[in-house]
Amino acid sequence: MRVDLPTFPTSLPQNSTSDALTYANGEKVQVGKLPGLNPLYSPRVGFNWDVKGDKTLQVRGGTGIFTGRVPFVWLSNQVTNNGLLFGSIIAQGAAAQSYNFSPTPLTSNGGASPQFAINATVKNFKFPQVWRTNLAVDKSLPGGLIATLEAIYTKNVNAVYYRDANFNSSIRNVDGDGRPQYAATIAPNPTANTDVNGNGLWGRRVNQNITQAVILDNTSKGYQYSITGQLQKTFNKGFYATAAYTYTDSRDVNSETGSTASTNLTSYPQVSGFNTPVLSYSSNLATHRVVASASYRKEYGKFFATTLSGIYQGSSGFRYSYTYSGDVNSDGNTSNDLIYIPRNQNEILLTTSSATDTRSVNQIWQQLDNFINNDPYLKNHRGQYAGRNAAVAPWFNVLNLRFLQDFYIETSKGKRNTLQFSFEAINFLNLLNSNWGVVRQPARQALLNFVGYENPAATTTNTQTNNLLPSNSYTTTAATGRPIFQFNTNSDGSALTNPWVNNTTSTSRYQLQIGVRYIFN
């Protein structure tokens, strides 16, 4: 049994302005309140059973709650974003001329009140914990082989996710798409934007001057499991080899890939809105993985030893999400809306990319349809929203080789030190052939550009001139009608057909490394 008790001896300043406000669903947010004393209990048990008593068949495993190193840095967002250190006033045109420079922060000079973002943590917040269970069998086989089969299952107990307590509920669903749509702007009059029940809203925000109220909260959603099969053998005369295959599935609500709470809230792709925790593929998931290694070591001449080793890794490719470029659901973010994958041309409105784009709508659709057919994930999920991290780049292979040369040096005290020279070839396959060992990555994750909604008020609504939607048939401000998209060509004007391109960074290049090391015994 292990118990962790995170405590916070430092008191934070209070913000009476934001503390007095009421947020979505009647929630009260206090930036000066840190989590209470919430013990993290970690009971666990394990076993190792030598079935026959001769170590030829062993069964091992265990189960328990595991608490990692407590990431206190997550609370630093609450310390800095409390609404007391900085704020902003947005004024345009003639209104901006009434604001003179003032060295005093948060001074509106008699005009509009400043806007600011706040961060807070729920009172009963607990740092991450998982329940993990594993079961493995090690079996000695003829010929000196050792076979291992192991399964690991991990379930989140206290995972972390972020939400915006100042974010209003949706006002309607996007026409022809069905996803929730939010009020696009902050209205000067609450009745200018209404929800489906006719209730007045201040745009996306519950409180106009709070740009965000990011709350650090817990969820138990999320799991991971893996199954591994391995063969290994130690040969005579210093030769050792092993090979393993692992199948893994991992789902989470938010992979926490950002460096700040706000980034983690707004950057992960979604459909229903970033306040709705949806379980999907983890960003670092590699479903299939093969690892094989071999090593040979030979000592000779009393003062020398040579080691040769190689490690091969083959793995499922990079996971990614297909999103729109633009704010389809009007949540204020322009890169986090997962696309709807059209089954046919009737399910999407397309237009040209620029005034010089001579393609007809039919030609644009044919190019998009061809791209979808070339991508296995898109092709198999037509008529659905794309999943977060659901698309997978092609398989990649990496082979690393290493050579070590040891020189033993006898000391006056009878000990033996070692002078070691090393040579490594990283991604050796790419050294042999420039087309090998290359990692593939998505050619365009932001597949379609959102340009606006079909405008029912326009006289050209639902009509096409020369197979194109004329510019006055859609608007970026009216939250009505079906969304309209562009499918851009490549920079040279050619159609985008291949879903993947080569990653040209050091990941896809061979590297040679030499070293020297002196080892004291």
Tally of DSSP helical segments: 6
Tell me the radius of gyration.
30 Å
The major sheet is characterized as:
14 strands, mixed
Beta-strand segment tally: 29
For the residues shown, what is the average pLDDT?
88
The best one-word shape is globular
- Kindly state the percentage of residues in helix: under 10%
Strand content: 35-45%
- Uncertain residue segments: 187-201, 459-467
Q: How far is the N terminus from the C terminus?
A: 38 Å
Structural class: mainly beta
Brief overview:
This protein is mostly beta strands. It has 6 helices and 29 strands. A hairpin with a 5-residue loop joins strand 6 (129-140) and strand 7 (146-164).
Task: Please describe what this structure looks like.
With 521 residues, the protein is mainly β. Helix content is 7%, strand content 38%. The chain has six helices and 29 strands. The strands form seven sheets. Strands 3, 4, 5, 6, 7, 12, 13, 14, 15, 16, 17, 22, 23 and 29 form a 14-stranded mixed beta sheet that branches. Strands 19, 20, 25, 26 and 27 form a five-stranded mixed beta sheet that branches. The longest helix has 14 residues, at 361-374. It starts with a strand and ends with a strand. Mean pLDDT is 88; it is low at 187-201 and 459-467.
What's the structural blueprint in terms of helices and strands?
Layout: E1 2-4, H1 16-19, E2 40-42, E3 44-50, E4 57-67, H2 76-80, E5 116-121, E6 129-140, E7 146-164, E8 172-173, E9 180-181, E10 193-194, E11 200-201, E12 210-219, E13 223-234, E14 239-252, H3 261-266, E15 280-281, E16 288-300, E17 304-315, E18 319-320, E19 323-325, E20 349-351, H4 361-374, H5 376-380, E21 391-392, E22 396-410, E23 416-426, H6 428-432, E24 440-442, E25 446-454, E26 474-475, E27 483-486, E28 500-502, E29 511-519
